[in-house]
Structure formats: C-alpha cells, structure tokens
C-alpha cells in the first residue's frame, strides 16, 4: 500500500468497510431468520403432532395388534393435507409404525425420543432420513396416562429458504449498489486529486514538502510566493526578517498561513509589485531603513506525472538587502 494513491486507498477502505458491514448484517439476518423460522415451524409442528396424538382413532390404533395397517394411510393423508415433510407414529420403544418411506416401517426411529417416552412433548432440530429437519415429538397417552406410542412430525430445513427469509438478496443488492456508488465517487475524486496533486502520492508529497521547506529556508535571500488571489502562500524566515512579517507557523494547524498582501504592513511600492504579478529584475524598493533589491517571476510548477504542464500558480519574488 505504500505506493498506492490516496484514491486507491480510499476505495479499498470503502470496499473493505462495505463488505465487512454486509457480511456482519447478512450473518445476523441469516441467524435471526433461521431462529425465527425454527421457532415458528416448531410451534406449528407441535400443534399438529399434539392433535394427532390426542385423536381417539390414533390412541385406539396404537393399542391394536397391527397399528401400521390403520395408521399408515391416515398419516399419509394428514401429512399431505398439512403440507409436512413427514409424520411418523412409533411404538414407545421407537420402532416406526408409519413413515412416508414404507421401507423405514419397522425400523428404529432416527432422532431423540427420551422426553416423549417420559410423557413430555418437545421440539428439536435433528438430522434424519429425510434430511435435517425441525420436528416435534408428542407422546400418545391412553386413558390411564400410559405412553402407548409417539407421534413425530417434521419439515426439512432449507438454507435457501432461510436466506430468502433473511432477505439476503436485498442485502446483496444494497451492497453492490454501495460499492458501485463508492467506485463512482472514488473515480470522480481520483480525477480531482490527480489534477490538484499533479499525480504525486501522499508519501511523495510529504517528502517533497519537507525537502522544499528545508531548501526555502536555507537560501540567503528572502523568498515570497504569492498566489493568484494575492495571498502569501509561502515565505521563508529571511523574507519575514526583511519585511517584518510574523514568523511562519510550524504547521497549518498552528494558525492562518496565507495572509493577504493588504493585511500586511508593506511599503506601498512593494505591495503594488506583489499584487500586480509583473516580471521584474533587481527592482529597488525602500522598506523602512532597508533598501531591498526585488526580482519577481511567474511561479510555474514542473510538468506533472500526468504528462501535462500545470498552469502558473502565482508569482515568486526574491528579496535581498542592498
């Protein structure tokens, strides 16, 4: 990243932030939708399984010599009407009397049944033969309150459905929109920054500023840079000494750095020269008890990395005491 431009860093930071936020929001929405979906399905399944277990027909069939003959057609019809994935009625030992897949009849039920064998209804999320499912298991009780069978009703879980319930497509669309908007804003900002920074990167600009600042203060003449608006953009310590200007602040945060020519106590002739921007060589000006020799030229920056020559940024004047 050391050689990256400011706009590239902003784009990467924006993209990382948006993607991280989208991942966090998507995960939270997915988990919330999954939990709400499990809870809603579990309540519905518990109501269906309890209604089946309380049916006198089911209680009678569970105590008959051949429960499967009576209950298999019944459970298939209820399963179809209730739009469930499976309804299984089993013995207290967990042996399936009914199943959507007839091959599973007579086999051990795959799933937890402990609470139901003790007479308690419960819901669970269990991997079973139809796949991972939300299920409710309710005991079948006879007139004496004894467990004579169990009813398990369930629906398969679907990550796709959970994603749709969590509105992940909408979150994805918003994320892409923000990324596109950020890309457009970065492109506009990139064009602006390339124009005003002449294609230099932040580290290069910092080094250039430190280097130029040290050079400006090392020359024996006074040096003044005036922009097109008539403000003193830059002056070195020697110029401050010759003209009686306040010392330059150490940084822009320390105070105003661009006083106007009219705000300074300069000799009228020198103020007019700096304000006019005309080119002169060794022009004499009186500044109090000092006699100053002033030269002034347009301040033209070197060609930028963009391959174009930038417009003049003002004038640069040199002062030396005669």
Q: What is the average per-residue confidence, as pLDDT, rounded to a whole number?
A: 81
With helices defined by DSSP (H or I, 4 residues minimum), what is the helix count?
Answer: 9
How many individual domains?
Answer: 2
Q: What is the second-level CATH architecture of the largest domain?
A: 2-Layer Sandwich
Structural class: alpha+beta
Task: Indicate the percent of residues in helices.
Answer: 40-55%
Task: Please tell me what the overall shape is.
Answer: rod-shaped
- CATH structural fold name of the largest domain: Beta-Lactamase
- Annotation, overall tally of beta strands: 9
For the CA atoms, what is the radius of gyration?
Answer: 42 Å
Order of helices and strands: HHHEHEEEHHHEEHHEEE
What's a quick, concise take on this entry?
The protein has 322 residues and is α+β, with helices and mostly antiparallel strands. Helix content is 45%, strand content 21%. It has 9 helices and 9 strands.
């Amino acid at each position: 990243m050391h050689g990256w431009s400011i706009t590239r860093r902003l784009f990467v930071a924006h993209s990382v932030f948006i993607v991280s936020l989208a991942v966090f929001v998507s995960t939270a929405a997915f988990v919330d939708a999954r939990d709400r979906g499990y809870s809603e399905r579990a309540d519905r399944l518990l109501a269906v399984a309890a209604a089946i277990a309380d049916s006198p027909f089911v209680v009678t069939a569970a105590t008959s010599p051949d429960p499967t003959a009576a209950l298999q057609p019944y459970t298939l019809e209820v399963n179809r009407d209730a739009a469930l994935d499976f309804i299984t009625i089993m013995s207290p030992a967990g042996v399936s009397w009914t199943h959507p897949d007839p091959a599973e009849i007579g086999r051990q039920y795959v799933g937890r049944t402990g609470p139901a064998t003790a007479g308690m209804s419960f819901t669970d999320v269990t991997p079973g033969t139809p796949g991972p499912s939300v299920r409710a298991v309710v005991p079948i009780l006879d007139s004496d309150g004894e467990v004579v069978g169990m009813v398990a009703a369930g629906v398969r879980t679907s990550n796709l459905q959970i994603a749709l319930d969590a509105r992940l497509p909408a979150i994805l669309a918003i994320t892409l929109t923000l990324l596109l908007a950020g890309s457009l804003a970065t492109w506009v900002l990139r064009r602006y920054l390339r124009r005003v920074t002449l294609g230099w990167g932040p580290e290069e600009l910092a080094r250039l500023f430190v280097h130029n600042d040290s050079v400006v203060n090392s020359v024996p003449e006074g040096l003044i840079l005036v922009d097109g608006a008539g403000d003193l953009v830059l002056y070195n310590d020697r110029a401050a000494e010759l003209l009686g200007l306040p010392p330059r602040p150490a940084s822009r945060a320390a105070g105003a750095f661009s006083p106007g020519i009219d705000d300074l106590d300069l000799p009228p002739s020198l103020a007019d020269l700096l304000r006019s921007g005309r080119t002169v060589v060794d022009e004499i000006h009186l500044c109090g008890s000092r006699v100053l020799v002033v030269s002034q030229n347009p301040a033209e920056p070197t060609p930028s990395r963009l391959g174009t020559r930038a417009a003049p940024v003002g004038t640069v004047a040199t002062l030396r005491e005669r």
